[in-house]
Amino acid sequence: MTWSTEQSDELYRVSGWGRELFSIGNDGKLRIHPRGAEAGSIALHDLCESLVDRGVELPMILRFPEVLRERIEAFGEAFDQAIEAQGYRGNYRSLYPIKVNQQRHLIEDLLRFGAHRHIGLEAGSKAELMIAAAMLDDAQAPIVVNGSKDRRLIDSALLLQRMGRPVLVVIEKVAEARTIIRAAQELGVRPTVGLRSKLSSPGQGRWEASSGDRAKFGLRAQGIVAVVEMFREAGMLDALQLLHFHIGSQVGSILTFQRALREAARLYVELVGLGAPMGALDVGGGVGVDYDGSRSSGDGSVNYGLAEYAEAVISAVRRACDLSGSPHPDIYTESGRALTAPTSLLLFDVLDVEAPTTIAPTIDPSLALDPAIAELMALYGELNEGQLQQVFHNARYARERAAERFAAGDITLPTMAQAEALYWHLCARIRAMAEASDQPFEDLAALRPMLASTYTVNLSIFQSLPDAWALAHRFPVLPIHRLDEEPTEEGVLVDLTCDSDGVIDEFIGNASLLPLHPTRPDQPYILAAALVGAYQETLGDLHNLYGDPNAVHVSLGETGCWTIDRVVEGDRVDETLGYVQFDAEDLRHRLRQKAEAALSEGRLKPAEARAALRQLQDVLRDTTYLDPMA
Question: Which of 133, 300, 322, 498 has the fewest Cβ atoms within 10 angstroms?
Fold first, then answer.
C-alpha cells in the first residue's frame, strides 16, 4: 500500500500539536503557517537547504516573529471577548515573564507587536529589571518585579517609580515588606507594591509545587494580614495595588485554574475590604501548550483553549467583586510559555545510524561445528508460530553461553562474531513472525527496543532541549521531509555529548521509539523538535562545551514569500571556552609553543608545523557542532 501524507500526519500527530501552525504538504515536507492556515506557508526543508547554502550550519533554531504576533493577538482577543460578553469593567494586560526566553530580539519583537495592547514585562532578578526598565517605554505597560530581592533591587524599582515608570514590586515574604517601607521612607518615594499569595488550591503537573503550603514564594493568609497592617501603620496603605498568585507552569486542566481563581478572587475582595485600594489582579502564568496533540489534561497537553481560560478568569473575578460590591480590577496574565513556545523550532541533522545487523549471515564452514554456532543454527528448525517465545528464550541463552565461553578463552573472536550475527538474525525473524501472528506474545515485546536503531544527531540535548533531559518533557519530534514515504525504522536519538543521559527515548504519545526513515548516502536527513521557544534557550547548559546553535529569524511576509530577517550566529569554540575562563589567545600561544617544540625535536618539518598550527587554531574559530561534510 502506498504511504500517504495523511498517515504521517496521524503518526506524528501534526494536526494535534500543530493545529493551524503546522501541516504536511503534498510533497511530503513539513510546513509552517506563521500567519495562520489561510495566509500561506513555508516548507521547512526548502528553507533549511537555502540557509545551509548561505553558510548557516545545522543545528539551527528557527524563530518566527509572526507567530509571536499571532499569539499576542490571540490572548488579547480572547480577553476582549470575555470582558465584553460579561460586562466586565476592568482592563486586560498581558505581562511577559522575561525568564521564559531572555533573547533580546524576541523581547524587541514582543514589545513591538504588543505595543497597541500595552504589553508589560515581569522581572525576577536585577538583570531582568534592567532589561524591563531600559526596553519598555509605554507608560501604560506595567513592570512587575517578582522573586527574591535585596535592598539594591528594591531601591532600583522605587527609583524607577519616581521616574514615572509603572513598576510594581511584589512582596513575596514578610521581611521584604519591612525593607520596602524603610527604603521608600529613606528615598522619599510613595511605593507601588503587590502581594503574592500562597494559595491553598493545588497546582498541577510537574510545576504544581509553585502553589500550596510548600510553595517557594508567597504569603499565607496570616502573612498577608501582617503586611497590610505594616503598611497601614506606616501610612502607606495606598501602596497596596496588586494581588498576585501563580499555580505552576503547563497547567493541563481548566478545573485547576477555576479552583485557584475562586480562592484568589475572594482574597482580592477581602484586601479591598481591609482598606487596601488594590486595582489589579495578576493571575500569573500556567496556560499550557498542547505538546502531544491529545487535547487532554495530561502533563504534555491542555484540555482548554484561550477563550475558555479567559472566560474562567473574568467570570471568577467579576462574580466575587459583584457579590462584595468591589470595583472590577485590571487583570494581568503572565503566560510566557503559551506566548513563546510555538514561535521556535530546532532543526538538526542525523550524523549516523546504528542498528543490529539482521541480514542472514554466511556461515564460515570452519566454524559451523562449534557448539555455540551449532546451537543457534539448530533453533532455525524450531521457528514456528507455536514456539516463538521458546525459541527467543533459547536464543538468548545460547548467546549468553557463547559470551561466557569467549570470556573464558574457549572460542575465538570470529566465532563470537558469527554467533552474534546468527542471534540478531534469529531475533529479526522471530519479531517478523510475531507481528504477522494474531497471538499475543508478551515476552517478545522486548524485541522492539532491542532491534531499534540508534540515530546520532547533531545537537546537544543539554544545550538545546534541556527539559527533555532534566524533566523527561516530550517535544514533538519528526522529520521535516520524506513524510510521503513510510518510516520503516524505529529508533532513539542520541546527541553528541559524552554523557549517557544525552538521549531522547521518550516521545509524544508515551512512545519510547520514534518512527524514522532509513538514511540515504549523501542526502542529509533533517529532523525538527517543535514548540521549543519557551525556556529551552535560557536553561541550556554547556555540557562538553557545546554552545548555542545558530538562530535564524524568518518572516513569511504579505507577499507569501519568506524572508530571512536576521541570522544570530551560534557560539564558536573560543567563545564557549571563554565562558569557563579560558583565554583563547593564551591557548593559541600554548599551541604555538607545542608546535615549536615538535619542530625543534624533529617531529615535524617547518611546513608541517605551520599547517598543524593553522589547523588547530582554525578549530578555535569553528562552530562547536559537527560538520558532516568535513
Answer: 498
Please state whether the predicted TM-score (pTM) of the whole model is above 0.90: yes
The CA-atom distances, in angstroms, between 17 and each of 44, 291, 293, 509 are 17, 5, 4, 11
CA atoms of 66 and 36, how far apart (whole Å): 9
Three cell numbers at 215?
510553595
**CATH architecture designation of domain 65-340:** Alpha-Beta Barrel (3.20)
Give the three-state DSSP class for 328. Answer: coil
Query: Per residue in 230-285, pLDDT tens?
Result: 999 999 999 999 999 999 889 999 999 999 999 999 999 999 999 999 999 999 99
Task: In whole angstroms, give the CA distance from residue 502 to residue 348.
Answer: 15
Dist CA 508 CA 300 (whole Å): 8
CATH 1.10.3720.10, applies to 371-449? no
Per DSSP, the three-state class of 504 is: strand
> What is the per-residue DSSP string for 173-189?
SHHHHHHHHHHHHHHT-
Distances (CA, A) of 338 to 288, 532, 603: 6, 11, 60
Residues 6+ apart with CB under 8 A from 175: none
On the question of pLDDT at 127 being above 80, the answer is yes
In what helix (H) or strand (E) does residue 48 lie, and over which residues does it extend? helix 44-53
